[in-house]
Amino acid sequence: MDTKTLVEALKLERLEVNLFRGTTPEEESRERIYGGQVIAQSLLAAYQTVEERICHSLHCYFIRPGDPNIPIIFEVDRSRDGGSFTTRRVVAIQHGQQIFNLAASFQVAEDGYEHQSDMPAAPKPEEVESDIELQRRMLKDAPPASRAWLDRPQPIEMRTVGGRFDVGNPEPREPNQQVWFRAKDAIEGHDHMHQVILAYASDMSLLGTAVRPHGVSWRTPGFQSASLDHAMWFHQPTDFNEWHLYHQESPSASGGRGFNLGYIYRASDGALVASCAQEGLMRMRKARPAK
Amino acid sequence: MSETDAQDETLVETLQLERIEMNLFRGTSPDNSPGRIFGGQVIAQSLLAAYETVEARVAHSLHCYFIRPGDPTVPIVFEVDRSRDGGSFTTRRVVAVQHGKQIFNLAASFKDPEEGFSHQAVMPEGPHWSELRDQMEVMRELMKNAPEEAKRWMSRSPPIEMRSKDARTYFLDGAKEPVAQNWFRCRTPIGDDAHMHQVILAYASDMNLLSTAMRPYGVHWQTPGLQSASLDHAMWFHKPTDFNQWHLYVHDSPSASDGRGFIRGQIFAEDGTLVASVAQEGLLRMKPPK
To answer: How many CB pairs under 8 A join A and B?
Structure first.
């Protein structure tokens, strides 16, 4: 799926003033819906009920695994249309049950106080191998079906500094990482699509940060991980066709959960364009007898 | 007035809810509330309303939006949506209503305690609470020429005791770094109920946070023309804790732009255990001169 296909696939059908229907792109996995897709579609549903204002934050919970084989219904609650802020809540429903909720706030653009934390040092994106290239190298002897899967077009290009930790041997590392990412092809349509695609991409790799010190990965037998929530603050508009540095750190893991913070900087001028926070489930299933 | 002044009621009593129906609750604000309800009160009461519908599980996160200013003169109605009762997780949403309108929403997740992978950020260096003075005491001293009404407000002993290394410079103009450290704890007894410690920690986590984003601009909540208000609030509870004991609340503000400031916070127990993380965005704007 290329970027253009993604933008098209995220689009919603309006069933009623506050009710929308979306589907999962055909090229996606048929096992469960990728979290970033539901975030992006819920944000789009909210945007459909907001005039001329820009999203500055969103908070979501993943409640149940999404079923990619049937549509998702998005129900919008118009919490408030205020003088400078608009608030919305969205519930995503499948099989009569809530799978996801989002709350978001929108604001008229204004000027004012400005400060930001500096972009941390990182090797340039041109100096970092893309995650896909690395996976191709690691899997060069894999069966053709696996290699074909790696050759499919990707909407988001990712380059993890130091290589994706979960490829190969996940030896314990520091609970922080840096990923360069951008939308691979031009994002067309409404200005807010850059924000929506950034939200889509922000659910990638973040959860893995808390896992790094513990010598496991999603390939480790018995290891269970899933995004539990996701929050995002948009500090300023950006062009997600440009490279952005996703700087991630995990201040905590405890009680079967890992907590991660992410900061998204634009490569061209170092501007902090968004911040993210996410908690994820990370646990070893009770040991089963070895095969 | 001494720090140990008896309170008419404890914070636990102030926050108490009346159950109207299975998923419907009503709370009130203390008589001495200023013109609008303190945000932390609505966070705490909403979390409590959610807890009333959850059996034996512990909150590990909450996310809220402040939608309209709360009116302390009328009750608040809390409506709970039982989003999911799952095998390991319980999810709830709460809407707080006044005058027929939503003033606030919260979503929260609960789970059974479990053991597992563990790491945490290190508590930063800073002065110990025993070396610092009570924030109200310092403010009373700094504002001894303030109007009678302000002095009356400052004469009370608030339920959350706060000691900040910046208390003395708080009302001084001039740019400062967007970082801050406060020691705090609940002065009134919370009791044995572990989830009440969490509820009151959530109450207190809305205090002093937004002012960290104002520090680079030499302004504070009393600067004429400055408009400031919490917009959202998110909190992750990493470990249970006893909030009648001192905790260090560390803030930094990675961003201000577009009339908003963003602040993150970390709450450490005195032994250095990271017990909670916080994130908040607030409105931060100078009213254009008329």
So the answer is: 196
For residue B29, the one-letter residue type is S
Q: Taking a contact as any Cβ pair under 8 Å apart, which residues of chain B between 29 and 88 contact chain A?
A: 60-61, 63-65, 67-68, 83-84, 86
Tokens representing residue B212 in the block: 């960290």
Give the pLDDT score at A265.
Answer: 98
Contacts of residue A269, defined as CB under 8 A and 6 or more positions apart, other chains included, come to: none
ipTM higher than 0.90? yes
The CATH number of domain A126-285, selected from 3.20.20.70, 3.10.129.10, 3.30.720.120, 3.30.360.10: 3.10.129.10
Whether residue A103 contacts residue A232, with contact meaning beta carbons closer than 8 Å, is answered with no
Computed over every residue of chain A, the mean pLDDT equals: 92
CA distance B162 to A69: 53
Write the DSSP symbol of residue B129: G
CB A115 within 8 A of CB B256: yes
Rounded to whole angstroms, the Cα distance separating A248 from B281 reads 19
The yes or no reply on domain A1-108 and CATH 3.10.129.10 is yes
Q: Check: CB of residue B48 under 8 Å from CB of residue A214.
A: no
- Cα–Cα distance measured from residue A6 to residue A20, given in angstroms and rounded to the nearest whole number: 18
Q: Residue ranges per domain, chain A?
A: 1-108, 126-285
Domains of chain B: 11-113+129-286 (2.40.160.210)
**Joined tokens for residue A52:** 């001329």
Residue range A38-96, pLDDT digits in tens: 999 999 999 999 989 999 999 999 999 999 999 999 999 999 999 999 999 999 999 99
Q: What would the pLDDT profile of A142-160 be if each residue is shown by its tens digit?
A: 888 777 777 888 999 999 9
Residue A195 has pLDDT above 60, yes or no: yes
Give the separation between CA B48 and CA B30, rounded to whole angstroms.
Answer: 17
| Closest among A58, A43, A46, A3 to A25, alpha carbons compared | A3
Q: Tell me the β-bridge partners of B163.
A: B183
Neighboring chain B residues of A252 at a CB cutoff of 8 Å: 119-121, 236, 238, 274, 277
> Which residue is it, tokens 């990638």?
A204
User: How would you label B60-69 residue by residue, b for 16+ Cβ within 10 Å and e otherwise?
Assistant: bbbbbbbbbe
Chain B 101-140, CB below 8 Å of chain A: which residues?
A: 101-102, 105, 107, 109, 111, 113-121
